[in-house]
Amino acid sequence: MENIEKDERNILDELNKGASMGQDAIHFILEKVEDEALKKELEKQYQDYKGISKKIHQIYPNYSEKEPHETNIVNKALTWYGIEMKTLMDASTSKITELLLQGTNMGIIEGRKLLNHKSPDPKVYDLIKEYVAMQEESVENLKKFL
After folding, report:
1. The pLDDT of residue 4
2. Domain tally for the chain?
3. Is the pLDDT of residue 118 over 50?
4. Are 135 and 44 contacting, i.e. CB atoms less than 8 angstroms apart?
5. For residue 70, what is the domain's CATH number?
């Protein structure tokens, strides 16, 4: 049973890091967005990530007495720096969307890997599916801004 709890905790930690990274990226890039429709889409996505993180925090105590892992200060700084450098010469709606799509696709890949672990806890497995579906929907919504 303890190994299952550890697996579930690790899955939830990875999901929460992905949700935190998504929130960080949107937070850092939002000030550069001039297109109102894209801004509205990103605000929705930010709330979606926040919602996933909230659900993780609700079930996490079933597997650990600690808090779920989030992105650390170094990763936050690297995310900010990467966005700054990649938008220095081109902060167009298309370029911003491209960066967001790259990050979201990485999240989908990680989420799909987690789905392949077939979590024994249906709540955790459903949360992974929700995370992946949310990101796949985000990709579809972002494509029109390229």
Report:
1. 59
2. 1
3. yes
4. no
5. 1.20.1260.10
Considering just the CA atoms, what is the radius of gyration of the chain in Å?
16
- Look up residue 68 and give its amino acid: P
Give the Cα separation of 24 and 71 in Å (integer): 9
- Per residue in 57-95, pLDDT (tens digit) is 999 999 988 889 888 888 889 888 889 898 889 999 999
The Cα–Cα gap between 87 and 29 comes to 9
Residue 14: partners with Cβ closer than 8 Å, 6 or more residues away: 69, 110, 114
Query: Does residue 45 contact residue 103 with C-beta atoms inside 8 Å?
Result: no
Residue 71 CB partners (closer than 8 Å, separation 6+): 17, 20, 21, 24, 79
Provide the domain limits for residue 86: 2-143
Position 26, amino acid = I
